[in-house]
Design goal:
Layout: E1 2-7, H1 11-28, E2 33-38, H2 41-48, E3 56-60, H3 66-76, E4 81-86, H4 92-95, E5 104-107, H5 112-132, E6 138-141, E7 148-151, E8 157-161, E9 164-168, E10 173-176, H6 180-186, E11 191-195, E12 198-201, E13 205-209, E14 214-217, E15 222-224, H7 230-234
Parallel strand pairs: 1-2, 1-3, 3-4, 4-5
Antiparallel strand pairs: 6-7, 8-9, 8-12, 9-10, 11-12, 13-14, 14-15
Helix pairs in contact: 1-5
């Protein structure tokens, strides 16, 4: 699955970009594409409130304070591929900088064909990067709808239940068939076992409460801590 978010203050442009994106997704990839959209600041914040997965972002930098919000988004989604939507009235120095890391630009005014060409190049670069790169910064879940790439930085914990493994990315979770023992062997060192049924991302830990047998994570999440894993987690206590 490929997750794409479109943010454009112009509703007509937004619908055109969505239609072009859907057409290109069908041509370029056999994966399922989840496409979300927003045309206002409030709508954008509503989409981002659930900390969704985001592989690709098309972002309009022309609204007031849009660039400041984009910098905040980039902090949360460092692996995301970004296309900036701008116009000649917006100085390139405002959005072509390290804190934003745009990899593509759609400059107004544009025709449908121009937008399609830029989008195709943008999507192709993302898909080729995924096919050619042995990316050690993401966890890949295989499904009938296509592979789901979840950046490690967005994972809070893995939980074993109902004969499956569920990966939690905040307010969303994704299930797949695996064993937690095998998973613990496969994951990088930033993940640590804290319970027979839980593996936690140590970079998401806010506090280890040994007396409460609980690991408190960012964004008001928590997971249980069993006695056998307390010595391992003690060093991470705050």
């Amino acid at each position: 699955m490929v997750s794409l978010l479109l943010y454009d203050k112009d509703k007509k442009e937004l619908e055109t970009l969505r239609a072009l994106s859907r057409d290109l997704a069908a041509v370029l990839s056999g994966d399922y594409w989840k496409i979300c959209q927003a045309d206002t600041r409030d709508a954008l914040l509503s989409v981002l409130a659930d900390r969704p997965l985001m592989d690709l972002l098309l972002y309009d930098v022309t609204p007031r304070d849009a660039i400041d919000r984009l910098v905040e988004i980039r902090r949360c989604y460092r692996e995301m591929q970004l296309m900036v939507i701008a116009d000649l009235a917006t100085s390139p120095t405002a959005y072509m900088k390290p804190g934003i890391m745009a990899s593509s630009l759609l400059l107004r005014p544009w025709t449908n064909q121009q937008a399609r060409d830029v989008l195709e190049e943008f999507f192709q670069a993302y898909l080729e990067r995924g096919r050619s790169q042995d990316d050690k910064s993401v966890y890949v879940i295989e499904s009938k709808e296509g592979n789901l790439h979840i950046p490690y930085e967005q994972i809070y914990f893995f939980e074993a239940r109902e004969k499956r493994i569920f990966v939690c990315t905040g307010k969303e979770e994704y299930g797949f068939y695996h064993t937690i023992d095998k998973l613990a062997e496969e994951l990088p060192e930033q993940f640590v076992r804290c319970h027979r049924g839980f593996i936690v991302n140590r970079y998401k830990i806010r506090k280890v409460a040994l007396s409460q047998s609980t690991v408190y994570l960012m964004d008001n999440l928590s997971v249980p801590l069993s006695r056998s894993y307390k010595p391992l987690l003690k060093e991470l206590g705050r």
